[in-house]
Design goal:
The protein is of the alpha/beta class. It is 14% helix and 24% strand. The longest helix has 10 residues.
């Protein structure tokens, strides 16, 4: 069994939600990045600080899919991805300054979503 550390992720200056505490486990060991350009620096920092594995969610899904995700790092301006991961119970970190929007807005809560996040908003808990 791996030993994972916890991080705190806060909203950026114009962001919304959170703060979130991300604590990977052996069952939820992936920091899944769905930003379309490899591993975003925010996802990599969370992985580095926690000991979890950064995973490019645009290339494939991790084994176990949603249940294997410690969190999802997205770059959604407010349509689909912004609500899919909160709806599936995955803490969601948006690098854009967004608020609950889109057809799945009812699933986006301060307890499961934070936006406007840069590397500066990710700290050891």
């Amino acid at each position: 069994m791996a030993e994972y550390k916890k991080v705190k992720v806060e909203a950026g200056k114009s962001g919304w939600g959170g703060p979130l505490e991300i604590q990977p486990t052996d069952e939820r060991k992936y920091i899944v990045c769905i930003t379309g350009g490899g591993i975003h620096p925010v996802a990599q920092k969370i992985a580095d600080l926690t000991g979890a594995e950064a995973f490019d969610g645009f290339k494939s899904s991790p084994e176990g899919s949603f249940k294997a995700m410690a969190c999802a790092v997205i770059d959604c301006g407010g349509t689909a991805r912004i609500g899919v991961y909160p709806m599936k119970g995955v803490p969601t970190i948006d690098i854009h300054d967004t608020t609950p929007a889109g057809p799945l807005a009812q699933f986006i809560k301060e307890e499961n979503f934070v936006s406007g996040v840069s590397e500066d908003q990710v700290t050891e808990a």
